Amino acid sequence: QVQLVESGGGLVQAGGSLRLSCEASGGRTSSTYVMGWFRQAPGKEREFVASISWSAVTIVYADSVKGRFTISRDNAKNTVYLQMNSLKSEDTAVYYCAAGRNRPYDYRGVKEYDYWGQGTQVTVSS
Fold it and tell me: CB-based contacts of 15: which residues, under 8 Å, 6+ apart?
């Protein structure tokens, strides 16, 4: 079993920045997982934000965050990051870290991920 713990959420003004972290523990091959970030706003479905393969060769972003967010990982620390810049009010959501098989059929698909963190709240004031 793999446990994921997110941190770094908070309240920020529009145009500001936040850096989310997700630490993974447990699992014999946790560092080989593809890691992703998803978010869920009130009344909306959980949506894809960004994902990164184990080797970081494949990186995928949602169109809504491309150019503003950067996903990265440090396998030695079993940690994935999401640097969020130029935040907008529509970025307000609970952000979830997820881990799945390293070669998913769809990096954007919720069903591709087997493990999920509890989420961290990001609130962007306008």
Answer: 86, 87
Give CA–CA dist 53/75, Å, rounded. 11
Pair 44, 24: CB distance under 8 Å = no
Whether pLDDT at 29 is above 60: no
Side chain identity, residue 16:
G
Q: What SS3 state is found at 37?
A: strand
Each residue of 72-87: pLDDT tens digit?
999 889 999 999 999 9
Three-class secondary structure of residue 121 per DSSP? strand
How far is Cα 12 from Cα 120, in angstroms, rounded to an integer? 14
Task: Say which residues have a Cβ less than 8 Å from residue 41's Cβ, sequence separation at least 6.
Answer: 90, 92, 93, 94
Q: Residue 73 corresponds to which amino acid?
A: R
